[in-house]
Amino acid sequence: MTMRRAIGLMSGTSLDGVDVALIETDGETVRVERSPNGYLEPLGPTGYRAYSDDDRALLRQALIDAEAVTERSERPGCLAAAEELVTRLHAEAVENFLSENGLTAADIDVIGFHGQTVVHRPDQKMSVQIGDGRDLSRRLGIKVVSDLRHADIEAGGQGAPLVPVFHRALAQASGFTESLGILNIGGVANATLIARDGRILAFDTGPGNALIDDWMRERTGHALDDNGRTAARGRPDEQLLAWLLVHPFFARRPPKSLDRNWFSHKLAGQLSTEDGAATLTAFTARAVARALDHASDPPVRWIVAGGGARNGELLRQLNYHLRAEITTADAIGWSSAFLEAQAFAYLAVRSVEGLPITFPSTTGVREAISGGVLARPED
């Protein structure tokens, strides 16, 4: 198959901004370079468009208004305005990225557009990512693949996680042969477990940064716990943690996925700022450790990506509870910050090629299927 130049766009549940990443792929392999130490060099240029406080306020209200959604096409409350905002800001992010890297629309074969998740209820066969792929394609003059979760959910899957097939491609490019865990900690945390025989098991492990971020915003006005410093000064509430970890979600066999708001930081409301941060950080780490309950070939190495890879206290706790080698994606030439954006570029090419993007062992879909909706500028 032909190598294509693809851009991936990701706006996650942390509501911080738009990640942009360019890769070259044929939908199976990823073009990589190796540094002298044998690790991968960055796959391609990346960019970022931060949301303003007003942008985030509208998106947070959209999450609240989306609770009333009963059909995928419904846009109650501020959802229509939020969808227009998401589309426009993603377009601006791509336009800035192309300009900064001396590229034009003609240099890009396809864009993978995740959109902003406002509803994820796979048990009701519903996952809604706002953002208009057709409008984005028309504005940019580039093909866009969007709505990447719907086909999987319609076929009986969870619609998440979508990135494991990209994780496997990166692991193969890196030459990993031992059992490997790839942990992405965004608003929600998800893990891809790759056994030595190449089998993949993937699922959401539980909360990622969302609860911690919400707690810090409410208590301090800051968007996050920088490097986990606040949590490091506190003590977890062990009784509350024990209660949280008996939630039925953790005992369910994967594949399984979560909505951002399944767990509430309000549970820690009676704690000090430091103890609340410590409790929620410990909750994220111990929920990841529960993933080992479902591993037939427990990882000897974990690679951590996403915003959580910048939280030193969370990494310390993961190192303690996972009892395996822990490294960040950046340390081996992957990208902690842009791994998901790269994944959606990869998934867009797989979609165009008609290759499967979800599998029984990653989303619970009955058989491996492709997905995504292709929009062309002329549509």
Briefly, what is this?
With 379 residues, this protein is an alpha/beta fold.
Mind explaining what this structure looks like?
The chain is an alpha/beta fold and 379 residues long. The protein has helices spanning 53-65, 79-100, 133-140, 150-154, 164-174, 210-220, 229-232, 238-244, 248-251, 273-289, 312-322, 339-352; strands at 4-10, 17-25, 46-50, 110-113, 116-121, 126-130, 144-146, 180-185, 188-194, 200-207, 301-305, 325-328, 373-375. The protein folds into two domains: 4-157 and 370-375, 2-Layer Sandwich (Nucleotidyltransferase, domain 5), CATH 3.30.420.40; 164-332, ATPase, nucleotide binding domain (Nucleotidyltransferase, domain 5). The protein has twelve helices and 13 strands. Helix 10 crosses helix 11 (312-322). The longest helix is centred in the first third of the chain and has 22 residues, at 79-100. The model has no long low-confidence stretch (mean pLDDT 92). One of its GO terms (biological process) is 1,6-anhydro-N-acetyl-beta-muramic acid catabolic process. GO terms for molecular function: ATP binding; kinase activity; phosphotransferase activity, alcohol group as acceptor. Keywords: ATP-binding, Carbohydrate metabolism, Kinase, Nucleotide-binding, Transferase. ATP binds at residues 12-19.
